[in-house]
């Protein structure tokens, strides 16, 4: 064993993943893409298979004092489906592994499962297996998802070319603001347990946090419109972080425009109420599970009228860097303040 | 929410899985087999894909006071590979999701990964993704595995017919006795920290516990000999429990013979030293990760001379039940004392 000790917090989540991924090579011909995208790509013959996995840990990813188990079950499936969507694929099977402490009743686990089954139905995936075991502390949900994509339609992070148009779906920053509202209500409740949570003006953003809906609708519509994104990623860590991922993998710079970034009115107003900059929330607030993708300029007309696809920027030579053009026409370097799940702190990456 | 509260311990692991599996139906044509076998079976075109997942939790499945991280990494991959072997398939990709507490250094996680990489190389699987996150208490390892099998060669739990021959590979009970030895040495060390662990006479069984090797060699040999098992399962919970699974799924009774059950000499002698019945250890001790399968009588000759395949019994009409024939020619009903991972207690099932 090595004598040196490096703390996990010194590396951060992305640093650790990069360090562990070093020296991992693939040996099977069927492995088309290993570590480094939203899902692994597996050659299954006529099509590609897609494989991804996500783990959700109580106290790290969710707080059961305000997250209903049914919503949590739905979200656990949805975030995995989102990884398959981000490859332009369709999810078909999931495995569900649960670590459970004795604190949970059978009825509680059934509520969790009800949410999973609702999501499975909504996204047309089958729950086909998994594992159930004891946990020493709280709830652990580990899901893997298998999906399919036609070989010529797979969308990697790495495919963007200079001059492509950058698209974002839905609206951004809402899930982050929903979390802020629920945290505030929790603090208020803890200070005075007679208080009822005040959530009626925040329904949309709370829903964005509790029950994100993977954008499979967009994947189906892209197929209908005959558009294959040149690159794609799901927006789980914030728009800025995902832009930088596309940039790194594709070897292009990305320029986005502040006035094009889609922000819902409730997100905007709540951010202002919390003395936060709405744009910063959209850039760095995670868990929206929208899609960020690039298309060729010639495909613009096909999507132009889509109400829920927003053209927020374009790719450029890598030497021009990754930049935000503000409303005042200033150029600001894009930096990701991704959530560091290992330390629970925001980190630059 | 329901007002009643049912404790998890009232149902046990198998009971909970059965309860959650109720009401789960499959909706995709590609799902050939969902919950209920060692792996799910997915139609990917010319072949079947196989998908399985397992979660290992510190303090439940392993004790880091005597389990080296490198061995643990190897074992985590091996037990997942074993699920694919049990379908007569070949594993090709795995995802690795880790929950880590701050107690672990980067070097410790690298040691864990070294073991995983060694197993990946040994079993020719690629580590293609996963997730890394914080855990509030200890180490959580959640792995999913994807494999392939030719459609006409898939082996389910359900395929045994009356009159088939029952085969077990390797030897049984060793992993369980290895665990007993390590637990004893841990107790001795805790009573007197100056004591060195005495493991030199127990190397084989300690290895069986720490670093089980999935029997992919057997899968390759069965293919060479042109034998497709009529049913198969891996021996993770003990021989008796697995016999009952094959019985339930196939709708046949199983008769095994005490004098045919393969037990290594070190396992036998250690069991006697611990005042345990070696046969009981083989029947109910888990984690050997050998294979249990049935073959047609006409295939017997093809495997007859294989040194590591043991013909321990046969199937019979379900009405004859599941029985052990003792050395004295007594008939004893087979009962599974499977390990209950939820309560940490042995349970009948």
TrEMBL record, chains A, B:
Keyword Transcription: no
GO molecular-function term, one example from the UniProt record: thiamine-phosphate kinase activity
Binding site for Mg(2+) 1: 54, 131
Pathway as given in its UniProt record: Cofactor biosynthesis; thiamine diphosphate biosynthesis; thiamine diphosphate from thiamine phosphate: step 1/1
Annotated PurM-like N-terminal domain residues: 36-149
Residues reported in the UniProt entry to bind Mg(2+) 3: 38, 83, 234
Superkingdom assignment: Bacteria
UniProt signal peptide: none
InterPro entries in the cross-refs: PurM-like_C_sf, PurM-like_N, PurM-like_N_sf, ThiL-like
Catalytic reactions of this protein: thiamine phosphate + ATP = thiamine diphosphate + ADP
UniProt binding sites for Mg(2+) 4: 38, 83
Annotated GO biological process: thiamine biosynthetic process; thiamine diphosphate biosynthetic process
Residues holding ATP: 113, 130-131, 157, 236
EC number of this enzyme: 2.7.4.16
Assigned keywords, A-Z: ATP-binding, Kinase, Magnesium, Metal-binding, Nucleotide-binding, Thiamine biosynthesis, Transferase
Keyword Magnesium: yes
CDD domains linked: ThiL
Residues binding Mg(2+) 2: 54, 83
Additional record remark: Reaction mechanism of ThiL seems to utilize a direct, inline transfer of the gamma-phosphate of ATP to TMP rather than a phosphorylated enzyme intermediate.
Its biological purpose: Catalyzes the ATP-dependent phosphorylation of thiamine-monophosphate (TMP) to form thiamine-pyrophosphate (TPP), the active form of vitamin B1.
Protein name, UniProt field: Thiamine-monophosphate kinase
Record organism: Roseivirga seohaensis subsp. aquiponti
